[in-house]
Amino acid sequence: MSFIVAIDGPAGTGKGTLAGILAKKYNLVNIDTGATYRCVTLEMLNKNIKLDDEEKIAQILKTIKIEMSNENGKQKVLLNGEDVTEKIRGKEVSENVSQVSSIKQIRLALSGLQRKMAQGKDVIMEGRDIGTVVFPTADIKIYLDADVEERARRRLKQNEEKGIQMSYEEILENIKMRDKNDKEKEFGALKVAPGATVIDTTNMTIKQVEQEISKIIDKKLKQKKKEAKIYAVRPETTWKKIERAVIKKLIYWFYRILFRIEKINEENIPLDEPCIVCANHINYWDAVGLVVTSKRRIRFIAKEDLFNNGFLNWIAHVFDVIPIKRGMRDLDSMKTCLKALKNGETLGIFPEGTRKGLAKGAKVQNGAAYMAIKTKVKVVPVGIQGNFKPFTKVKLNYGKPLDFTKLDSKNPEKDNLEQATKEIMDNIVMLTKQEK
Ligand code: DC
To answer: Residue 241 contacts by C-beta under 8 Å, 6 or more apart in sequence?
Structure first.
């Protein structure tokens, strides 16, 4: 799993300096995406390529090699093997880069290149469209801003240190022009990404900004660490098997005392192939009932909050319950589910999403249908009947497996997803009403 910090904002807000400091502090790979646009600009200037010469631009994009490294805290940029660290900061490149970066063809290619540079790594990436286009799902999104005069003063100082000759007026004009271009771009325009933290650095020292961003990073890292523990599957050791067998037996007897269980047509669960058991959700006890009374080992999918309770977290890891984040597409959860099905396991899902979801008018979730279509496994609908009052009867009514193999497994995102979800839910509802 990679960790991505996206820093966006106009020129001169301190993105580069901060990315450098934070990269060192948190051991992140520092990717300056502005430098990639500057490299393409330099290459176009070197080869005299016009802004509208799509063919030649395509050729450059196909062969260009951009490498970035950090030597003793100083960024080094290689363009096709040549060290262009200084050249790409020069006047000519600075005056043309904004226009070059407005070309869609270039943006598409460089966004892809930037994603590739980050692949599998923990990175801090700075630019204009990182949180909006390149990594809209970044772990952290920061938008730095500052008054334009202050930004020009900072750039002047930076240039003087690097020995780059440009007057304050020239820099100010250049920044203003680039701001305008960056914000009005048709593709990849500079804007605050949804969910980004905006920091106005005009009256802040670098140290202060660093501390503010560090607080955000620390909090996120802590959260990620906790999540990693929740999502980790406990190795299937003999001890774990014993724990599971003992707990299952204990809960089973407790359950038998508390409720009078009746299982109807349980043989509908296939024993020799993966499947998804989908039931209506009345009470917390219904998932427990299905798990402890079933001949097959069912891995239920449960909301992440459940894992916050130490005891339930332990039980959930013994039974390999799969956590899911509410209200968003949880890709980690989906990956774990698909892997389990490919592994021949049985999943348990409540498509209603929440207890008594149908009655509450909640939108039925189509995750089960998606996975069934995608992996071509059958769905066993179950109608749970009962009110779960102590010493009353609970019926688990298993229906015939539903087969969705005829639906296109490559493209389950269309109407057939809704159709399959409806079929699953209709069967569940029918089974909840059916008398033996
Ligand atoms: O950050 P910088 O000044 O080195 O960026 C150079 C130019 O590249 C800038 O005018 C905007 C553009 N750019 C962009 O369009 N998208 C990015 N992700 C990064 C930079």
So the answer is: none
- Cα 44 to ligand 1 centroid, rounded to whole Å: 16
Q: Sheet containing 298-303: which strands, arranged edge to edge?
A: 260-264, 393-398, 378-385, 275-279, 346-349, 298-303, 322-324
Q: What is the DSSP string of 277-300?
A: EEE---SHHHHHHHHHH-SS-EEE
Atom 5, ligand 1: which residue's CA is nearest?
34
Domain boundaries for CATH 3.40.1130.10 within the chain: 236-433
Q: Which residues contact 18 (CB under 8 A, 6 or more apart)?
A: 7, 126, 144, 206, 209, 210, 213
Tokens representing residue 209 in the block: 């900004």
Copy the structure tokens of residue 255. 């359950």
Give the pLDDT mean for 275-295.
93
Q: Closest ligand 1 atom to the C-alpha of 37?
A: 8
Q: Which amino acid does the sequence have at 38?
A: R
Provide φ and ψ at 425, rounded to 5°: -65, -40
For 253: left if phi > 0, alpha if psi spans -120 to 50, otherwise beta; the answer is: alpha
**DSSP state string for 313-329:** HHHHHHTTPEEE-TTS-
Whether 38 lines ligand 1, by a CB cut-off of 6 Å, is yes
- Whether 11 lines ligand 1, by a CB cut-off of 6 Å, is yes
Short-list 17, 177, 186, 6, CA closest to 97: 177
Q: What is the mean pLDDT of residues 383-388?
A: 93
Domain with CATH 3.40.50.300 in the chain: 4-230
Summarised one tens digit per residue, pLDDT across range 11-51 is 889 999 999 999 999 999 999 999 999 999 999 999 999 99
At the second CATH level, the architecture of 4-230 is: 3-Layer(aba) Sandwich (3.40)
Q: What is 236-433's CATH number, 3.40.50.720, 3.60.15.10, 4.10.230.10, 3.40.1130.10? A: 3.40.1130.10
